[in-house]
Amino acid sequence: MSVKVKRNNVDxxxxxxxxxxxxxxxxxxxxxxxxxxxxxxxxxxxNENIIRCIADIKPDxxxxxxNSKIARxxxxxxxxxxxxxxxxxxxxxxxVTWTDTPVSPAPSGRDYPLNYKIIASLTIGNETVNxxxxxxxxxxxxxxxxxxxxxxxxxxERSELYNETTFNSSYPEGTYxxxxxxxxxxxxxxxxxHTYLYVDTVVSVFRDVRNQYGSSITVTSCYRCPRYNAHxxxxxxxxHIHGDAFDFDTGSTDANWNIAIxxxxxGVDKNRILxxxxxxxxxxxxxxxxxxxxATNLPSGWSGYxxxxxxxx
Length: 313
Hints:
Largest sheet: 5 strands, antiparallel
CATH class of the largest domain: Alpha Beta
Number of strands: 14
Helix content: 10-25%
Structural class: alpha+beta
Radius of gyration: 29 Å
Shape: elongated
CATH architecture of the largest domain: 2-Layer Sandwich
């Protein structure tokens, strides 16, 4: 939208100065986010919550008088699902920065990205012109925000997250025996169907266990995002959310026992290898061996080893 405003003709100053019509407009020309220039989180560390926004008035001859009068507003973008809260508005001006806090609390995590509408407005005379743009977290920061919202001690860096392409490039399945779909969180739409995952030690250790075992291993749970981990009752600081654990169930007590033994032979501490009677009762491999149990001699009341768990850190 362009607006006409009358200004004194600077070429003919004085009492009888004529007026000329100036067509003016305002436009947000740039939004610069802290993470790769395109995204953000609410984390203050490394200034991840500071966003810069630049607006431009045309013609440039209006800048000196009106740049400082550009009003700013930041609101939740109603065009995108989820309540992102109403952050503090930036100061007036053409080149401003603002922090994306406060946001809507999400102690259980959220399944949507934080998203805001940024508005720059200028009034000259009786005319007001607005310019709007939107800023939305990308897939990496949408996942990282779960760790921040749920107060996890460690927040993965963007470089530590993998999508299917970067995972397959870094960890070829033929070498590491673990596919992206096996490693990915099982939360699906509940946790926003995130396309990234966080793996730390689990892929390399799984490869070693698989090579030691000598056959395929059915992985039932590997990476879990914090939101899904809480949903299924996982430990608050589960190793799964940090990419340092996998669960397995190859369908028989003998096989699950042998995988546990293979994990120990691959160098995993026996206290970090668990075999489960059911979803609530488990014993470490060390405890089982120290008490004389094995694939055929089970603890009292156990009908088998239902599944197993390996902490890989």
